[in-house]
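This follows on from our talk about sequence and fold. Go ahead and set the record down below:
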Amino acid sequence: MIGSFLFISGQEIVIILLVVLLLFGANKIPEIAKGLGKGMREFRKATEDIKREMNDYTDDVKKDFTDVKDEISKTKDDLKV
């Protein structure tokens, strides 16, 4: 799975990790990982909020369509009589 991520092989991942280690040092890597974790958590939370809003909106639209359908059925039944 990791080896096929964006067509990057295992050797390239190791080289990237070594470059990161050299650039930032061993002390900064946990801080960077913590920041990335927080960012991912916020992104996931925002995505869930958007999904919830979309579901609420579509539920309202479905209710409106059901109401219109019921009104059309009532009108059709009234016209038959």
